[in-house]
Design brief:
Blueprint: E1 6-19, E2 22-35, E3 39-43, H1 50-58, E4 65-70, E5 73-74, E6 82-85, H2 97-108, H3 114-127, H4 143-156, E7 161-165, H5 173-190, E8 193-197, H6 201-207, E9 210-214, E10 222-227, H7 243-265, E11 279-281
Parallel strand pairs: 3-8, 3-9, 6-7, 7-8, 10-11
Antiparallel strand pairs: 1-2, 1-4, 4-5, 9-10
The protein binds adenosine-5'-triphosphate and magnesium ion (MG).
């Protein structure tokens, strides 16, 4: 990706928090770019700093070092050109489902009248399967339903960039599949740029053009960037028939099981790419092994520290 095509650019990002031992460097020297219309996922163990990076991209948290530029301008605070789905829903508890979504729509298009705002909000409430629940408040909703309100709110403002923090984590498999398909459709139709955190390697391979692999914290960094070489019209129902799928999946699982920790401990290092950032690899295009490597089951990331 040339600098010219880069829509979002992250340079030398670092975040330190005060701690009982003085200071905790969560991550350091984080560099990456996202092209306009690109879908990028980030994967890493719990606590490595993924949400903190997303909050910095959203302008909700100040970095301790480094810069974020979006569309040629430095990100210095929150803005409606970025739609965020938070890990913890972050809904307004006194507002209904319709209230939460239409509040965002009204902020984005202040000149719209009430009917137009509600019709627009309803489209996205329907999209996430919540029609009929418009008048419920967050306390009356399940975790998955709250998550869907957050998704509807972020999609409804049609942002230049979507920032998604494990948006499908609390959804049942069926709903998750439906919303993943919708997200792919929206991205294909609108060339939406997306930065998404996930713990699910299969989800990352289905959705992402590139997958950023983050080493364990503290002092975490983007250790590697994996290019998804599967065709962009891949679908949930057919993706596993492509031999490239297993090569990419095994590469990601191997990183999470072994290399993410070794890199943090300084046991192995990854070469820097031409730009000085993390190296980019295409495991899907690697030649076949003489003895096929069995597919390792995906690790339960929250249980691993
Ligand atoms: N406000 C804060 N003050 C102090 N430490 C913090 C603060 N926010 C986050 N941290 C620490 O920064 C680290 C990274 O947190 P973050 O929430 O970004 O992790 P994460 O990769 O999103 O984890 P998970 O996968 O569990 O959501 C953790 O060690 C966390 O304890
Ligand atoms: Mg998180």
């Amino acid at each position: 990706m040339s600098v010219k095509d880069t829509f979002l650019r992250v340079e030398g990002l670092a975040k330190r928090f005060p701690s009982s031992k003085g200071e905790l460097t969560v991550f350091d020297k984080v560099d990456f770019g996202i092209a306009r219309g690109e879908f990028v996922c980030i994967i890493g163990h719990s606590g490595c700093g993924k949400t903190t990076i997303l909050n910095v991209l959203a302008g909700l948290e100040q970095p301790s070092g480094g810069f974020v530029f979006m569309d040629g301008r430095e990100v210095s605070g929150p803005g409606l050109e970025r739609g965020v789905v938070f890990q913890g829903h972050a809904l307004m508890p006194w507002m209904t489902v319709m209230g939460n979504v239409s509040f965002a729509v009204r902020s984005r298009w202040p000149s719209w009248n009430r009917a137009k705002v509600e019709a627009h909000a309803r489209r996205f409430i329907d999209l996430v399967g919540l029609s009929g629940a418009e008048h419920k408040k967050p306390a009356e909703l399940s975790g998955g339903m709250k998550q869907r309100v957050g998704i509807a709110r972020a999609f409804a403002i049609e942002p230049k960039m979507l920032l998604l923090d494990e948006p499908f984590g609390a959804l049942d498999a069926l709903t998750r599949g439906v919303i993943q398909d919708e997200l792919l459709k929206i991205c294909a139709e609108t060339h939406q740029t997306v930065f998404m955190i996930t713990h699910d390697v299969d989800e990352a391979i289905l959705l992402a053009d590139r997958i950023l692999l983050m080493s364990n914290g503290p002092n975490a960094r983007i250790a590697e960037v994996v290019r998804n070489t599967l065709p962009r019209d891949r679908t949930r129902l057919t993706i596993h028939h492509d031999p490239q799928f297993y090569k990419i999946r095994n590469h990601l699982v191997d990183f999470l099981v072994h290399r993410s920790k070794l890199i943090q401990q300084g046991g192995v290092d990854t070469a820097a790419g031409a730009s000085g950032g993390p190296v980019e690899v295409s495991p899907g295009l690697e030649p076949d092994q003489p003895d096929p490597v069995p597919t390792v089951p995906a690790p339960r990331l929250h249980a691993v520290r």
